[in-house]
Structures are given as C-alpha cells and as structure tokens.
Amino acid sequence: MATIKDIADRLGIAVSTVSKGLNNASDISDETRQMVLDTAIELGYTPKRKKTLINNTAERKVCVFIENMDYENRDAFGYDLIQGFRQSASMRNWQTDIIPSNLNAQSTSQYDKFLLTNRYCGAFLIGFSMHNDYSVQISKTRFPTVLFDNHIQSNPKAGYVGTDCYEGLKLAVTHLFELGHQKIAFLNGAKNSMVSYERTQAFEAVMKELNLKIYPALFEYGYYVPDCAKYHVPKFIDNGATAIICASDLIASGAISEVTKRGLRVPEDISIIGFDDLPFCANLTPPLTTIRQDRQNLGRSAFTLLDCLINHIPVSKFLLRPKLIIRESTCRRQN
Amino acid sequence: MATIKDIADRLGIAVSTVSKGLNNASDISDETRQMVLDTAIELGYTPKRKKTLINNTAERKVCVFIENMDYENRDAFGYDLIQGFRQSASMRNWQTDIIPSNLNAQSTSQYDKFLLTNRYCGAFLIGFSMHNDYSVQISKTRFPTVLFDNHIQSNPKAGYVGTDCYEGLKLAVTHLFELGHQKIAFLNGAKNSMVSYERTQAFEAVMKELNLKIYPALFEYGYYVPDCAKYHVPKFIDNGATAIICASDLIASGAISEVTKRGLRVPEDISIIGFDDLPFCANLTPPLTTIRQDRQNLGRSAFTLLDCLINHIPVSKFLLRPKLIIRESTCRRQN
Predict the structure, then answer these.
(1) Which pLDDT tens digit goes with each residue over B69-121?
(2) By percentage, how much of chain A surpasses pLDDT 70?
C-alpha cells in the first residue's frame, strides 16, 4: 500500500510537506494541498490507524452517509439503523459522525478524498441507489465501506448488509398460501434497485416452490411511498388478486386506502402484507401484517461488518433473517 | 424462553432437583437426570450466561464439531479454519473445544442435549453434509450454531459462513475467458451439497453473462479427492475442453495427473484452475492457479457470526470474497 514517502517521491516534495497536505496544515498553499490529496488518492494511500489505547478515539472515526431517507424521527426506517450502528461503534470506542449526503453534494462526488481529508477509517452508506454517482466510486474505493441493501461486485473493501430477501418473501408467500390464497400480487419497490431485483427473484422462486401461478398482471415495480399504490392496486384487483404483498409498510398503507376506496375490505376481500415493520404499522386500520426487518440489529451488524473490513477481512455479504409479524391485515381467503 | 422453574413445574419436582439434573450433580438418580434433560430440551430451555467478569471463562464455552475433514496438519483445509476461530474466540475470552464428531456419534444424535449437558453456549459445524442426521437437528436447534458452507432455512439460531460462490466462479471463468478459452469444463464437488449447488448456479450464470456456451458434456459432479478426476477428465478432453475448473485443489491435482497421463500438457493443452489455495498448490507441477478461500478469516468470521447469534442477532449468511491466485496451470488458449 502507498506510503507518505511514495507521495513525496511522486511529487518531488518533502515528506513533511505531504503530511501537512494530508493534515490540512495552514502553512502550505491550497494548490500544494490539492496536489498532495490528488496524488494520495491516485496512489491509493489510506491513513494507517495508530496503535492507540483502546479508549483513545483520536484515530477511531467512522461516518454514516444517509440519502433519501429520514432518520430523525423514531418512526423512520433510518432511525433504528443509525442507533444500532452508533451503539456498536461506541461499544468498541469508535466515534460516529452522521452525514446527510445532500449537504455534501460536492464531497460525495469525491468519496475517497472526503474520507481521507476528514480522517475517517470507513463509512456506512444508507439509501443510495445503484445508478447514482456513488456506485461508480464505491466500486473503486480503497476505504472500508458498508452498503445497506446494495452489493458491489469484486471490491474487497465494500460489503453489503441487509435482510435475507429470499426468506422474507418465503415468509410472506407461505403465510398467504396457508390462508388459502392463490392469486397473490407483489407490488415491489423501485426498479433498478438491487434489493428490488433480489426480491423479484425470491418471489418467483417461492411461488414456484409452492406451485402457485405467477400472473404478469399481478406484479409491478413501484416506489417507496404510499401514493404509488393507486397506480397498481386497481389493476391487481381487476385481475382477481385476493392478496397483495407490498415491498414496504408505506406502500402497504397506500394499498389499504386504495382497496378501501374501491369499497372493498381488508382483510376480508383483500389480504395485505407490508415489509419492514415500522412503528406505525400497529396503528393502521387494520393493524398491518408485515415482514419485520430488525433495523437495530441491522445497524449493529453494519458496524460489525465495517470493523471486519477495517481489519482486512473481505466480507461480501452479511444478511439477517426477517420475521413474520401477524396482525389483522391478512385472513383466510373468503371466496 | 423456558426457565428451570418451568421444568420443575412440568415434572412436579423441586427446582433444586432440576438444577442438579442440569449440572450433573451426583446425588440424584440417572433416571431423574434423564427426565430433567429430556424435559429441558422439550421446553427449549437454554442456560442463561451469567454476567461474569470478562476474563471469567467459566460460562464462556463454545465448541467446534468437525467431520470428514482433516484439521491437524497445516496443509489441511480445516487447520486454518479452526486456528482463526480459536483466535477470535480467545480474544473475546471464550474457550473453544474441538470435537471430531466421529468420536461422538452418540452425542451427535442428540445435538441440543450434548451442548446443554456440556455447558456450551454454541457451536461451529465443519464438514457436515446436508443429508445427514445433523441437518434435521440443526433446523430445530435452540443453540446458536454456525455452519460452514451449509445453510439452514428459517431457524434464526443457525447461521451460514462461507465464501461467495458467485464471485469465485466469476473470477475463474472470467480469467479463462480473458485467456481466450471458450469450451470451459467444470468438475464440481459432491452432489447434494449446498455449496456444490450454489457453485453450479454461479457457473451457469457467469457463463451466460460472458455469452459462453454451456456443454452438458463439460459438467460433472465429483468428490473432494484427486481420484475423482479420472472418471470425468477424459470425457472433458474428448469433448474438446481447453480448460477445466475444479471445485477443490485436490480435485485439480488429480486433473493435472489425468491430463498428463493422456500425453497432454498443462497448461499448453489444457488450463486447470483449482479452488481453496491449500499450501500444497504452489508446489504442484505446474504450480496451481486457484480460487483462494481465506480460511483463517473464514474461521474468524465464524466466531464473529456465532457471537452475533449468542447475542440474539439472527444472522442468516456471512460470506467472504474469494481471490484469484494466478500461477502456472493456466495460459492463453493455444489452438
């Protein structure tokens, strides 16, 4: 791995100047600092963690980038995720900074440089979609990076933490199957998202295992907002669906109102299952049956995984098991 | 979760007698002890770990069951696996006992009872095939259990640690593809093994991604010994294979001798890739190109995963990235 001396040699300047550049010292020109940082990134330099006392957090800093996701109120998906991460990190004497990435548009376009100049040993990324600028950078990053619900191929510095998609769909479909449902619709999340793709694969696999017919008219990609239900639920109903699996609780809440609007009842006419088990699920009418993602433990696991990557253990995937939470939005098929 | 009192109530005996039964006290009858243990298992009782000083290992005991696999010499696959597990465990002040399961045939038929009576908080299982008695028990166990290269559905107490099969086959096939090979044979491991199944899926997926034709005559299941090569390699050669991927280094070593026996050269006539990167690979003639499984880190990760399960984090899968080690058994296609 590149050292400070390599950078100095490449630029033909003193090692002391390089370290000033890396440490944002004020007594060198911005131009030199820029040059040092660019070369550091180019050569793949990453700061070595000093062997410090366990309770000296000076060199033990990681950050969480969060995008397109609320995390400040308890009901938000990101809230427990970050709580869990923070807990595990502080138990191991690591400091965690939270960085809503929209406030860092410019830094996000230079991922490695941002981590380097801010002396972060690694990062946890939440809510980024595969097609944005990040995935390109993450596929090449030399900094330990954990992605929630995203998988980057081949880069041993990037690991994926999430919930086992196959088990999630297996729980949902099997629950409905045991209630006598045959025409099961699936309103998936955003297209072009890795987790949506994996859930589609899982849905098809489980339906086949149970010898249930998959109807193209009973499958759609949506988006993670209640509103998206109104574009697809009517079609599902018209095509005879007696149950709908939704890729998130928010979508499910939209599906419930859509079904009700059409003068049908949940669950008597249409059973509905959500995904996530956010706090509001229990207060919906009817209370929502859903596939629980253990967000607190996902956050804890994200740090465990990051800690592995920081210690050069090339983790590819770290998946937790989901749990079926049965409430009142599903029942035995009536007709 | 069931308590000692539940067991006492169910049997209508004193709590003190139950705890004598669970602790192998000598002043109760074998019959009573048996009864206590059977009821403990039936009710799903698991001993609670006392909150003890971090360096008090009295209640911090786990075990490694190993079957069909050598682990005593440095060249063996199990050796580093167990070293890594032991290291991580002792760093966290856990004691590890190694249990070659053939010496415990009777205990293996009563998995939970064995762990309970020996006061183990959990176990790491290496080398067990899915179709043997174990998988039935593991699917129901209430004890934290980590399986190497095996996945049990739905039981939140059983986690799977291994190497990402898709990435392994992707590295192997892509390497051969870039060397101009088109007719690539795959000599897989034992049929009915989960990892063999996943590798088959991965092989087919990657071949498709690279628009390479899959020839039924160039795919076979074998077994993890050099000898199995002689049953399949001749057929691969007769059907025009210019490269062979083997599911283990041992199989690959057998493939090399088979090719040589037929008067052909490795790699000029046939390129060969192994799997695992065991120490002997570098000393083969020619030195073997292989897909490295990081056994030490797999062992460490196995303990990390077991620690998660012990702390009620329901990990389903924990996969590490493999690495392509290029030596001299592969080269550009000659004809």
Answers:
(1) 778 888 888 999 999 999 999 999 999 999 887 644 544 557 888 898 889 99
(2) 93
Predicted pLDDT at B42: 78
Q: In which region does residue B322 sit, left (phi positive, over 0), alpha (psi from -120 to 50) or beta (all else)? A: beta
Q: Do B316 and A167 touch (CB under 8 A)?
A: yes
Q: Which two tokens stand for residue B196?
A: 């063999």
| Predicted local confidence at residue A2, as pLDDT | 82
Q: Cβ–Cβ of A321/B297 closer than 8 Å?
A: no
Q: How many C-beta neighbours within 10 Å does residue A58 have?
A: 11
Nearest Cα to B164, choosing from A153, A54, A276?
A153
Contact (Cβ atoms closer than 8 angstroms) between residue A172 and residue A186: no
ipTM of this predicted structure? 0.82
- Chain A residues with CB under 8 Å of B209 CB are none
**What tokens appear for B192 in the block?**
């009915």
Q: Is A167 on the interface with B (CB under 8 A)?
A: yes
- What lies within 8 Å, CB to CB, of A130 at 6+ separation is A150, A192, A193, A194
Joined together, the tokens standing for residue A134 give: 């990040």
Does position A107 have pLDDT exceeding 60, yes or no?
A: no
Average pLDDT of chain A? 89
B325 touches chain A (CB under 8 A): no
Q: What's the pLDDT score for residue B326?
A: 98
Number of other residues whose CB lies within 10 A of the CB of residue A264: 13
Cβ of A167 within 8 Å of Cβ of B154? The answer is: yes
| Pairing label, strands A95-100, B122-126 | unpaired
Which pTM does this prediction carry? 0.84
State whether residue A219 is helix, strand or coil.
strand
Residue B151 has pLDDT above 70, yes or no: yes
Q: What is the largest CA-CA distance in chain B?
A: 81
Asked if B321 and A154 come within 8 Å (Cβ–Cβ), the reply is yes
Question: What DSSP line would sit under B44-90, residue for residue?
Answer: T--PPPP---TT--TT-EEEEEE-S---SSTTSHHHHHHHHHHHHHH
Highest mean pLDDT among A71-80, A141-150, B3-12, B34-43: A141-150
Q: What is the DSSP string of B203-258?
A: HHHHHHHTTPPPPGGGEEE--SSGGGHHHHHHHHHHTT-SEEEESSHHHHHHHHHH
B290 phi/psi in degrees, rounded to 5:
-155, 165
Q: Do A167 and B313 touch (CB under 8 A)?
A: no
Q: What is the DSSP letter of A56?
A: -
User: What single DSSP character describes residue A63?
Assistant: E
Which phi and psi (to 5°) does residue B61 adopt?
-125, 130
State the DSSP string of A67-106. -S---SSTTSHHHHHHHHHHHHHHHTT-EEEEEEGGGGHH
Tell me if chain B has a CB within 8 Å of the CB of A317. Answer: yes
pLDDT of residue B58: 54
- Provide, as residue numbers in chain A, all residues whose Cβ is less than 8 Å from the Cβ of B320: 313-316
